[in-house]
Design goal:
There is one protein chain. With 276 residues, the chain is an alpha/beta fold. The chain has helices at residues 3-13, 38-50, 62-65, 68-81, 98-109, 111-114, 129-132, 167-175, 195-202, 220-227, 240-243, 251-272; strands spanning 17-21, 56-59, 87-94, 120-123, 142-148, 161-162, 165-166, 184-188, 208-210, 234-238. The protein has one domain (3-166, 180-273): Aldolase class I (TIM Barrel, Alpha-Beta Barrel), CATH 3.20.20. The chain has 12 helices and 10 strands. The strands form 2 sheets. The chain has an 8-stranded parallel β-barrel, surrounded by 6 helices. The radius of gyration is 18 Å and the shape is globular. The chain starts with a helix and ends with a helix.
């Protein structure tokens, strides 16, 4: 999916919502355990309930890898079930030396060998260009680079001064030598608030994947105040706040209700910014 195609989906649905599929056996409604593959059934019902309200789905691969072979099969089948006009994100946070990163890229992008071909994958930049460039060899695929995250330990490294700039700023500036805003996004946590202004000075045209709205306390309006750009430029992720809105048989219905709340708020923001 190209950047323009993603923006067109945002305009069509009046939404820039990404639904995180962090699906775990100990958190999904217990009545689903009767199914042969409870997590896959959960994911399918969540997707069916929200696919007209969101523009992206983001399975966190750790929630699948932990179940071994069955988990990988669930991840593959989940990817297959995501409508192809919806942006798919493998939230894998990979990052290793070149030949290993090449294999990771094959894992998430080469359907012929792995049975999956996500639109994008999250990548850790700590090992530099060696760990990122192999992902960029795939045409029309995206790298979503960790930049300024929402976790409490982000300050251990990301805010450290490196000369006249902070480390996350150096990551954003350096990474723009590797790819344009047509193939690279950045992860910026919703709890960072006004720091979006600093990010936009360095990356005015890039899309930003923004976790942390909802359960983690990020404020959508504040994120948009500083982070919105001429093509929206934001994918706001909500995981627990949507998919675990109910533990009952009505879980999909309740997930839809929470997604509608966010979509309606996003629609007002897009209209105010004259983007729809």
């Amino acid at each position: 999916m190209t950047k323009q195609q993603l923006f067109e989906q945002i305009q069509k649905k009046r939404s820039f919502l990404c639904v995180g599929l962090d699906s775990s056996l100990d958190k999904i409604p217990q009545h689903l355990l009767k199914y042969e593959n409870p997590i896959l059934e959960f994911n399918k019902q969540i997707i069916d309930a929200t696919k007209d309200l969101c523009v992206a789905y983001k399975p966190n691969t750790a929630f699948y890898e932990c179940y071994g072979k069955k988990g990988w099969e669930t991840l593959i089948e989940t990817w297959k079930y995501i409508p192809k006009d919806i942006f798919s994100i493998a939230d894998a946070k990979r990052g290793d030396i070149g030949n290993t990163s090449s294999m990771y890229a094959e894992t998430f992008f080469n359907e012929k060998s792995s049975e999956m071909s996500f639109d994008s994958v999250t990548v850790a930049p700590y090992m530099g260009s060696d760990s990122v460039l192999p992902f960029l060899t795939f045409k029309n695929k995206w790298v979503i680079l960790l930049a300024l995250t929402s976790n409490s330990g982000h300050a251990d490294f990301q805010l450290q001064e490196t000369g006249e700039e902070r480390l996350f700023e150096k990551v954003i500036k350096t990474a723009q030598q590797w790819a344009t805003d047509e193939q690279m996004m950045y992860v910026v946590g919703a709890t960072r608030g006004a720091a979006f202004g600093d990010v936009r000075k360095l990356a005015p045209d890039h899309f930003l994947l923004v976790p942390g709205v909802g359960a983690q306390g990020g404020d959508l309006k504040e994120v948009c105040k500083y982070g919105l750009n001429a093509q929206c430029g934001l994918l706001i992720n909500s995981s627990r706040g949507i998919i675990y809105a109910s533990q009952g048989v009505d879980f999909a219905e309740k997930a839809r209700e929470e997604a509608i709340k966010l979509q309606q708020e996003m629609e007002q923001i897009l209209m105010k910014a004259n983007l729809v």
